[in-house]
Amino acid sequence: MYKVFIVVQNLRIGGFQRIALDEAYGFIEKNYFPTIVLLESYSKSSNENFFYLEKNLIEKLKLEISITGGSRWNQFKFFRSLIKKEQKQIKFISHSLRATVLIRFASFGYKSKVVTFTTIHQIPSLSALTQRVKRFLYSLFSDYLFSYSVAVKKDWTQRVNSFYLSKLIFKKKQLSLLRNGVYLERLPKKIIKTGSGDSSKIRLIYLGRNTSWKGIATLLDLAMEPALRMSSLLFIIPSDDLSFLNNAPAEILERVSVQIGKSFSSYVPQPGDIHIYPTNYGKNVKHIESISINCLEMACVGVPSFVTMGGLHTWQDLESSQIFIEVNWNNLEETAIKIVEVSKYNFSDIEVSNLRDKINISNHIYHLLDRFSEY
Question: Fewest CB atoms less than 10 Å from the CB: which of 62, 110, 118, 259?
Fold first, then answer.
């Protein structure tokens, strides 16, 4: 048997933090009892971190959380002490390449009982050159590499193969696709019919941080389209930075609601809800990922997401369900009309159940357990 440690930078509200927590919940559901290791400390009273927002669930599942804290030297000593004291083989699931390097050095002399699995959470082309090179070099310290999306895998492979030297160095470090998943038990318990035949009932939902590449401004422009002039807007964001509304016209502000520092479990679906995820990675990124964890969460409660064209490769098996609708954000009029059409559709209980089966974090955990058995 072995002990599982899930290493993540912090528990602030974000994508890799979300998947790290759901991994932990998923392992506990399978009667494995992992420990989450944080590289940074956190405030137990801050509504900008998952520990605060999901305190009840964390306590209910008796999830153990340890903090390394301090300098890199202190973090190294933490991992060194942990590895020396642990009697079982250790499986580290790392969501931080820096942590992966620390673990490798800390395991010197004990390498036979330590295996590290690292997930790459960012498309390499989104990083500056220096940061990108550093990420590639750090990846050499991991026993196994995962990419959370097809876009990451394609971009990574293309970068590696673009130069003879990089191909020579990194050719043995292939990425394996490990799709994200959702721990279903933390989702809203009540799932209501979300379709609506009334355009005045349409509610455009934005989930997540206020970052330019997530296209939060696009949602405001979209709401100005005649077809959506009766729609309301709901922003569920982790911080109280409302600067994105500074230049919004009064007719938009009258239709806006904001929930600050809330997790997805606080969201209550309503008839006519549509999730908007208008990502824009820039012209230099050839491979994009349109499906965020928020899109997956919405799908699990029967709410469709409108996403950027060309980034559905990771979830092609859900394409026929029409839960994810790819659109061109340069044509907002056409997108608005499509939203009105889609808002009328009710996903059946069977359709939602099939979606949940595919998105369930259990699939993610089983994939990890298969890889564990190889070491």
Answer: 62
CA angle 181–10–35, rounded 5-degree value: 70
Cα gap 301→354, rounded to integer Å: 11
The pLDDT assigned to 22 comes to 98
The whole-number average pLDDT for the span 307-327 is 93
The least confident of 68-82, 157-171, 281-295, 336-350 is 157-171
**Residues facing residue 257 across a β-bridge:** 234
- Asked if 25 and 52 touch (Cβ cutoff 8 Å), the reply is no
pLDDT surpassing 90 at residue 81: yes
Q: Which helix (H) or strand (E) holds 119?
A: strand 114-120
Which tens digit of pLDDT belongs to each residue from 172-224?
778 999 999 999 999 986 666 667 667 778 999 999 887 777 888 899 999 99
The DSSP H or E segment spanning 203 is strand 203-207
Cα separation, 339 vs 223, whole angstroms:
11
C-alpha 105/C-alpha 295 separation (Å) is 37
Terminal-residue alpha carbon distance, the chain: 12
Predicted local distance difference test score (pLDDT) of residue 93: 98
Domains of the chain: 2-181+360-372 (3.40.50.2000), 188-358 (3.40.50.2000)
Rounded CA-CA distance 298/302 in Å is: 6
CA distance 15 to 121: 8
Report which DSSP code applies to 116: E
